[in-house]
Design goal:
The chain has 91 residues and is mainly α. Helix content is 76%, strand content 0%. The chain is elongated and about 70 Å long.
Length: 91
């Protein structure tokens, strides 16, 4: 989106821009950024990234030790058992 507010010659041009689709989208973007900076704590984001990194490290270590096929089979078997669609489904 081009931001051309600095190049406007008259205040009425600014009002026209603000009432246009681009102007309204820019206002929406600004409000979303303001909400994100107020509502989301930096520590929350950092902790989420750290958690995701540790999870990927754990998965990498499991795959290194057990092999990819064994890890995938275990994961698929666990997922199917949680959904109760395994071979031994109880009626």
């Amino acid at each position: 989106m081009k931001l051309f507010v600095n190049h406007l010659k008259k205040p009425s041009d600014l009002l026209k821009y603000l009432d246009s689709i681009d102007g309204r989208l820019q206002q929406l973007t600004n409000k979303a950024q303001e909400l994100a900076s107020v509502a989301i704590d930096d520590d929350l984001i950092k902790n989420g990234i750290t958690l995701a990194t540790k999870f990927l490290d754990l998965v990498t270590n499991i795959v290194d030790k057990m092999g990819l096929i064994t890890t995938l089979a275990t994961g698929i078997g666990a997922a199917l058992s949680f959904k109760n669609v395994g071979i031994l489904e109880l009626y």
